Amino acid sequence: MKYSIENKFKFLIITNTILSILITLHILIFPSLFGTTAINNLSILSLLIYGSLWFYSLYMLYIFKKTGIYIYLFLVMLGILLNLFGNTPNYTKYVSTLSTLEHLVIGSIITIIYLTPIKLKFFR
Asked: Side-chain half-sphere of 59: how many Cα atoms within 13 Å?
């Protein structure tokens, strides 16, 4: 069975969404695994804002809206900066594996957006 690049792209968006949900739920449900016994209100608010923008950008990518690319890239770069300069917790093997898989998917999505004919769907 032959799949189009569009189907592969949408599969990656769905995969990214699932991985993001699993990581977020794990952080919210098991905060003690991240070195804290409770997540404060500011952390929850920050996570909700970042997560909402993240899932919005994934939706915009899924329906091929150019603003989705800009939000997605901004959040990827913001995430990198937060990991570099923030107090990064020690992840469990489970979250570390999910995070690694998510980063591979993110790289694939960005590559497809800019290096395949699918970019024409965004920039028309």
From this structure: 6
Query: In the numeric block, which tokens belong to residue 116?
Result: 């395949």
Half-sphere exposure of 51 (CA within 13 A, CB side): 17
Task: Tell which residue, 47, 49, 58, 53, has the closest CA to residue 23.
Answer: 47
| 17 CB burial (10 A radius; 0-12, 13-18, 19+) | middle
Q: How far apart are CA 58 and CA 56, in angstroms?
A: 5
Per residue in 61-113, pLDDT tens?
999 999 999 999 999 999 889 888 876 666 778 888 998 999 999 999 999 99
What's the pTM value of the predicted model, to 2 decimals? Answer: 0.86
Q: Tokens in use for 18?
A: 């699932």
- What CA–CA distance (Å, rounded) separates 117 from 9? 11
Closest of 1, 47, 52, 53 to residue 27, by C-alpha: 47
